[in-house]
Design a protein that fits this description.
The protein is of the alpha+beta class. The protein contains twelve helices and 15 strands. Helix 10 packs across helix 11.
Length: 390
């Protein structure tokens, strides 16, 4: 067997077939730490929450325990900060005093009279749910627009025209709905556009909300996050008293609202019981944001004095019925707008609020056809009583 010129053989190997494969670099402890944390990040990306260490799901419990271990080690937190896209490693600062603790209690958990301060019966520690982190709750700058809505709902609950039912499920978290969580009422002011988040397993659908709390704060949590909190926190929905429940196939169709003018024009401000009755498919607050610039609102700011959520019906039909009932007391007025044109605002009626509320109830039950509005007594009167002269 003749000798082989290995050097010439290596020199002719243009494709590198004879090259010695390089060994894969060994994983360092830092690499392993980053990989383990990225599994936690992927879990959050898929489920929109941090993994819990007290669950019965073995895979999640493993990730939750791993996250607990990381949060207990400042060095690991610092080493992983560049990978923390969801704020999983951000821990709230401890309050400097008891006053700071109470001031930061946005949901009123510490003034709950249900015995929550009895530490002898506290549940096991849960990993923080980042989607509901207090850092995401801020003061609602336009809270004065929502405050009358909360006052109205409390009044309805006190009067028995509304009631609380156990949280019926995440599908009922819709725009315009009211809930009570841990003794605090909240209002879903807006539901954002649907986002689709693709993971290695599935495509997750979620919508970001604008949630207003009656303590003057707001949050932009996801619908799923609010649903989890409602389920864990013994949440309740606020529904009309005549409803046994809001069914899954009930469709929210809009609002019928009642406004009061805040005009300083004596011709307007001196009219007792002057109200505008209108309808909106979305929250009323957005509809009246620039009322002082619009002739339909008498070129003046307005305030919401009542708002009726409607289901499974054409809201404009309800509005038209109310207009027909109170047609005789419609305000006859014309105004000149900023564009110099003359306008005749409609939908303003001289009628007490409690009578409007009664008319809405009669329309809902179908009994409105048996009533007319008596302008002299400012009351709804049954047609039979009217014919008999009573």
């Amino acid at each position: 067997m003749s000798g082989i010129d290995f050097q010439n053989l290596f020199d002719s190997d243009e494709d590198g077939l004879l090259d010695t494969p390089e060994k894969a670099p060994k994983l360092t402890s830092s690499d392993r730490l980053e990989r383990s944390f990225l599994e936690i990040v992927e879990f959050y990306r898929e489920h929109d929450r941090a993994p819990r260490s007290d669950t019965r799901q073995i895979a999640e419990r493993k990730l939750g325990a791993r996250l607990d271990g990381i949060l207990a080690n400042d060095e690991k937190i610092a080493a992983l900060a560049h990978l923390d896209e969801f704020g999983l490693l951000v821990q709230p600062e401890a309050p400097a005093s008891l006053d700071d603790l109470l001031d930061g209690d946005d949901l009123g958990l510490l003034d709950d009279g249900t015995g929550i301060l009895d530490t002898s019966d506290l549940p096991q520690r849960k990993s923080p749910d980042v989607s509901m982190d207090a850092a995401q709750r801020v003061r609602a700058e336009d809270f004065e627009a929502f405050e009358p809505l909360f006052e109205q709902k409390h009044a309805e609950l006190a009067a028995g025209s509304a009631k609380l039912v156990s949280f019926p499920g995440i599908q009922h978290i819709t725009e315009g709905s009211f809930f009570v969580l841990n003794g605090v009422m909240l209002f879903v002011a807006e539901v954002g556009e649907t986002e689709y988040k693709e993971s290695t397993v599935r495509v997750n659908r979620r919508e970001r909300l604008r949630v207003i709390f009656e303590n003057g704060t707001e949050s932009s949590m996801y619908r799923q996050s609010l649903g989890i909190r409602m389920g864990e926190g013994d949440g309740h929905a606020v529904v009309p008293a005549e409803f046994e429940s809001i069914l899954a196939d009930d469709v929210a169709t809009g609002y019928v609202y009642v406004l009061r003018s805040l005009s300083d024009d004596p011709q307007i401000s001196e009219i007792t019981d002057l109200h505008k009755i209108g309808f909106s498919r979305g929250p009323v607050e957005g509809r009246i944001a620039h009322a002082e610039k619009q002739p339909t609102y008498l070129m003046a700011p307005v305030e919401i004095v009542a708002s009726y959520r409607t289901y499974n019906m054409k809201t404009s039909a309800l509005e038209n019925l109310l207009h027909r009932v109170f047609a005789e007391v419609r305000l006859d007025v014309s105004q000149v707008g900023k564009d110099g044109r003359r306008y005749e605002p409609s939908e303003w009626y001289v009628v007490p609020l409690e009578v409007i509320d009664q008319a809405v109830s009669l329309i809902s039950s179908g009994a409105i056809v048996d009533y007319t509005y008596d302008t002299a007594s400012k009351r709804l009167r049954a047609r039979q009583a009217e014919r008999s002269g009573k």
